[in-house]
Design goal:
It is built from seven helices and 13 strands. Strands 7, 8, 9, 10, 11, 12 and 13 form a seven-stranded parallel β-sheet that branches. A six-stranded mixed β-sheet has the order 1-4-5-6-3-2. Strand 5 and strand 6 form a beta hairpin.
Length: 252
């Protein structure tokens, strides 16, 4: 069953109806070719998901009747934020897609000393972020997420570190770390009180030594991913999958 996201304001409980507007209207009618009587999954992105039956389709909206209402059950019990140094070409799109599938809460693109990608101006930056957000939306639909991860506008490493002080735990994948792994770090902590975790991933070529020192000064724990060097587009969802497994979100 196809899944769509709406806002809480689009759900009308007194009349037991849901209104879908925007680009999804064309997708439902022209691409999927759905019609009156067909069922859809709809999520309000906050607390509930619904089974809706199409009552009417117009150019502006799709009107559904609510057939069933259920609390969200597909979200992780912890909030995980990915601080990803922006890689070249379409690697960022792959990172957003796969970490969305695995339950990421938000993605913060960061600009580091070895970041190659440059933005022409603010308009170019906004266009890129809009593209990344659309990828997150589509991945959230496909993976039956209850919430859409938010892709933030790119910021500097120092700005990201300041923002990350709100997290309960921050960890950075570092190729020169040889002692502490993700499992060992989590085992040494009282994870019952950890609700918000930041994952830090460097660009192609990795973080510079000065950046690592700066990050560690902000109480970001370095972790090893083993004896092999992973690409930047692989490291993020490797850390996320290990961490989610250890905290019980993957595999029971």
């Amino acid at each position: 069953m196809n899944r769509f996201f709406v806002t809480a304001a689009d759900v009308h409980l007194p009349t037991k109806e849901i209104t879908i507007v925007g680009e999804d209207v064309k997708h439902i009618s022209k691409v999927l070719r759905l019609s009156t009587g067909d069922l859809l999954e709809v999520c309000d992105g906050e607390k509930y998901e619904y089974i809706g039956k199409i009552k009417n389709i117009s150019k502006q909206e799709v009107l559904l009747s609510i057939e069933d209402q259920m609390p969200l059950k597909t979200e992780a019990p912890i909030e995980v934020i990915l601080y990803q140094s922006i890689p070249k070409a379409t690697k960022m799109e792959l990172i957003i897609q796969k970490t969305t599938e695995m339950g990421i809460k938000s993605i913060v693109p960061i600009i580091t000393n070895r970041t190659v990608v440059q933005f022409k101006d603010d308009k170019d930056k906004e266009k890129k972020v809009d593209r990344w957000q659309k990828i997150a939306i589509e991945a959230a639909k496909q993976s039956k997420r209850g919430r859409i991860p938010h892709v933030e506008s790119p910021i500097s490493l120092k700005e990201a570190l300041q923002q990350a002080q709100e997290n309960d735990l921050n960890m950075i994948a570092y190729e020169r770390e040889v002692v502490q792994g993700i499992k060992g770090l989590l085992t040494s902590l009282d994870t019952k009180n950890i609700k918000k975790i930041g994952i830090w991933i460097g660009p192609e070529g990795g973080f510079e030594e000065g950046e690592i020192d700066l990050v560690k000064d902000k109480n970001v724990h370095s972790v090893t991913l083993g004896p092999r060097i992973l690409r930047t587009e692989t490291a993020g969802f490797t850390v996320l999958s290990i961490m989610m497994y250890e905290l019980g979100d993957l595999g029971g």
